[in-house]
Amino acid sequence: MLTSDDALRLCAAACRSATDLGVPMSIAVMDPGGHLIALVRMDGAPWISADVAQGKAWTSAAYGVPSAAQKEKMMPMPAFAAAITTVTGGRFTPQTGAVPVYRGRTLLGAVGASGGTGDQDEAVCAAAVQAAGFATA
């Protein structure tokens, strides 16, 4: 289980990494069921980034893989992706920018970011997971 302290450490580590890049972001941490544990919107992050970060984290937590994997999977099936987004109340966000959080083989949740490019968002999340002592697989 990710505690609130764990989630706040992940957010703080992600914010440090985003600051190093010079890119203000929103960071969301979800549990394996896609429930929000922590959310930080850095000063200057786009207003929509908080919602997008949550969607990316939800998607990563739901599948236990980086959200980029769902982006690749859904590319040839845009109607199917739209249908899943609809039936999940808009939570399914198949875009690059979130990674799962594991302890051993146990999925604890996911961390998602938005505000930079998808690759920057994912890199910030992966760095945060490593800095907080967790794994992405």
TrEMBL record:
Name of a matching Pfam family: HbpS-like
InterPro entries in the cross-refs: GlcG_carb_metab_protein, PduO/GlcC-like, PduO/GlcC-like_sf
PANTHER family listed in its UniProt record: SLR1406 PROTEIN (PTHR34309)
Protein name per Swiss-Prot or TrEMBL: Uncharacterized protein GlcG (DUF336 family)
Organism of origin: Blastococcus saxobsidens
